[in-house]
Fold this protein.
Amino acid sequence: MNNKLNKFSYIAKDTNGKRVRGTFIAEDEQFVREELSKNNLFVVKIKKVSAKAPSAFFSISGKVSTKEITNFCKQFSVLISSGISIIDAILTLKEQPYSALLKKTLEKVVDDLYAGMMLSESFKKYPKVFPDFLASMIFVGESSGKLPQVLLSVSSYYTRTQKNKQKLRSALAYPLILFFMMLAVTVVMMHFVIPRFIDTFMQMEIDMPILTLALFNISQFFRDYWKYLLLGLLLIIILIYASLKTKKGKYFFDACKVKLPIFKKITYAIFTAQFVESLGLLLSSGLDIVSCLDNVRVIIKNEYLAKQFDKVIIDVKKGISLSSAIEIEMQLGTVVTQMIAVGEKTGATDKMLLQTVEYFDGQVENALGLITTTVQPILLSIMGIFIAILFVAIYAPILSMITTLT
């Protein structure tokens, strides 16, 4: 016998011939027909409703934003704290101005709950909508009976995560603008300005120095083969994008983020801030250390760091302390390892971690500041050197001609 419960939508008629529409949770269609018949309802049409997650077509980005998840957790916590049942809370949230994807998914969640499924189990069915970390924390809240508090903590966690993303975008904005300005200036100079100057020099039979001739040859090369160069650039971009979809390719690029000088500090700062807060939240909920680390592993998007973290989990399972395992396997700095070591000795690791969240957020800001203090000056220097080369290449022949005439 199949014990899996399914959702059926039906159209039936009552004894007065009036049509009735509704849904029914049951094992099979026959059971639905029998139950409706007991209530003097005669089935006209019945159909099994798909249990699949709604299409990402309902969302422009194909997923639910972090900001939306943050608001959802906060409102969910408030509703449950007021004494409303989980199902009624979700039914209320379903009517809020969320994205169509989230609303459609919440409808599926309600059906799952009516079918006897736990909230965390239902959330895990829809990973494109509810992050794995959220589903894990929901399970912690259900197990400990502290779901409202856990939801507030998760909301705070995602708020900080969103702020770090915005800081990173802000820090990268100006360097990217400079880069594209430099690219635009290069294209204009190579394609339009330099050729005209060269034609003028040739008509005036002015002797051109080596730098001017080199610049002219480069300009001519770009003008003759720009289509092939553009096609080559597009192919490189496509290859990079395709390689990022492979496990080895993603690992390689993630390793570059960890090993390249400037990106290394930023990547480790962001990871450390997430690690400290997420582990602190999980430990404070009463989970054992191994379960906490397994759940933290879920939020690590960098494959290189994830591989290092897997070694940490293995070491802890062998009986090695967390502080020692991190010191051996990862480069999170002495502050992190010493802080965890103190927490392990005092039995208050969760409190130690949560008390230092703001400190590590500050470290993220300092790391992102490297983009402003390092990358921007480098780009400005490159632009300055490029303009200086152009100036010398173009005006050297003119100055030579003036000197000759005088």
In short: The chain has 16 helices and three strands.
